Amino acid sequence: MIWDDWWLDHRRMALHRPTGTLVVGDLHLGYLNFRQRLGESVPLESLAEELLPLEQAWNDLRPCGLLIAGDLVERQATGLIPAFAKWAHDRSISILGLVPGNHDTGIQLPPFPVLDQGHQLGRWRISHDDDALPEPLVHGHKHPAIPLPGHGMAACFVVSQSRLMLPAYSAHAAGGSVLRRSIVPWPEGEVIAMAGGRLENLGDINALRAILGPNQRKKRRL
Ligand SMILES: [Fe+2]
User: Fold this and answer.
1) How many angstroms separate the alpha carbon of residue 213 from the centre of ligand 1?
2) What is the pLDDT of residue 76?
3) Measured in angstroms, how far is the CA atom of residue 22 from the centroid of ligand 1?
4) Ligand 1 centroid to residue 137 C-alpha, Å
5) Cα–Cα nearest to 13, from 130, 195, 169
6) Is the pLDDT of residue 221 over 60?
7) Ligand 1 mean position to 70 CA, how many Å?
8) CA 71 to ligand 1 center in whole angstroms
9) CA of 11 to the centre of ligand 1 (A)
10) Ligand 1 centroid to 118 CA: how many Å?
11) Neighbours of ion ligand 1 (CB under 5 A)
């Protein structure tokens, strides 16, 4: 789905069309291992399995480079960085860099640039979170999602003229309901949700709040 300078992809990422840069955030690689260590009985995925949607999007969209908008790995999973770099190299995926997120602490000398100050794509600033940065801004961090009948909490983009909030790439990370103003504090925006393997524009976020009411799901750790 085209929106402004962007192609929004149902595989939970966005392509900046003028530069051909594919932006993906909140991959949280190693998250299932982390949950297993906490005692949860969850099946593990190989790295290649976790990254298959990204590989498919890369092959379909044919971008020039990949920019990671933070939280590449889950905490204590920095050992996956070399494996991720090799995965990308083996597929000729050019990593422009990592804008580090709050889960990326401890990453040392990865084989691609670490962009501590964010990255500029055209008029858009790419960040991990939305802490007092100049607009227009692209960021993740909050794992936006919306309750949809038949789809549970559906991951979504939230877009406005000055914001593009990315869904978490990880299908396993908990989502923050965009019906809550703590997740989307800006006054306006549209919600574009993943439903049944495609994108649906659900329209104005304030209208959705009026219809669906505040979501009372307990907030989970992002
Ligand atoms: Fe995250």
Assistant:
1) 25
2) 67
3) 18
4) 17
5) 169
6) no
7) 7
8) 5
9) 16
10) 16
11) 26, 71
Which one is predicted more confidently, 77 or 203? Answer: 203
Ligand 1 center from residue 4 Cα (angstroms): 24
Mean per-residue pLDDT of the chain = 89
Tell me what percent of the residues of the chain surpass a pLDDT of 90: 67
Q: What is the pTM of this model?
A: 0.91
Give 72 Cα–ligand 1 centroid separation in angstroms: 8
